[in-house]
Amino acid sequence: MQSKTNNTVSDKPYLNLLQKVDFNPIFIMGDHRSGTTLLYKLLVATECFNFVKAYHILKYDELLFNHINQTEEQAIQELAQLFKSLGISNRTIDKVIVTPNLPEEYGFIINNKTGKRAGLNPNNLPILKELCRKIQLVSDPDKPLLLKNPWDFPNYMYVKSVFPAAKFIFIHRNPIHIINSKLKAIRLMLSTRCEYTALISRDYRNILNQPLRHLISRILYSPYFNFALSKVTQKTVQFHHYYFNNIIYLPKTDYIYITYEQLCDAPKTTILKSLDFLKLKSKSNFDYESVIEPRPINLLPEVTKKYDKIFHKLEPYMREISGSYAEGYKEAKK
Hints:
Structural class: alpha/beta
């Protein structure tokens, strides 16, 4: 066995092993702040899937080395100690508990390798394929691979074109609540150093390490300017229009959709519905209700002020996905 103290800890000598690794991915598709993290966590808890972990992101270039040389557990423990030494207990923005096995987005690997936050494209596709093969090789080869990356919600037709056998689980949430949550999350990330995100995201580290850029970002995304709401609303509308306009081209046998509200109200039923679509059976007795923590929406003043305009930009999507979103609009106007 080679020692981890050796400077040659690298996957390079083992990359040829990936050539024979096959995979058929399942993608969770949803906008940022739509509930993709909760859905990912609950699906992973069924023990039916391989998935991207925080460990895979932070130790990406030595995953094969650690697996082959039986040093994976050592590396995971070292990572847990690192989290502890940095005072990292949760993700800050949503209080999700952080461990090396925390399900995470493959987009962080793309960002760290390319310096760009982006959905899948021909330039970064080889990175994702390598990541998928690595995870399948170091995990249970009989389990399907479950993936998520919100940047690919407005990009799912391209994803389908490069992974023709892929299945999709779409999660929807009232988009006005998404906009509200995005604004809160961005402002928190810019006003507080989130150590965990700084570890896994090259883009976030760059912002923190450039004081002028950091200051300008904080000012622009503050409640005192219209920029933040306009920018976030524009992107959210763009993402949801893409879904609404393209879903007719995706075979109905290849996707299922749920809502965040359904997931919170009936987590076990919703998860079993998703597994049934994938023709899988849960391998655990996980208590799904135990991780549901209802939180009040508390719309920001600027969101409340612009509620009418935002709703009308998204009305076709909101009525198509859930009549309750339109009913929520009526309630908000009372």
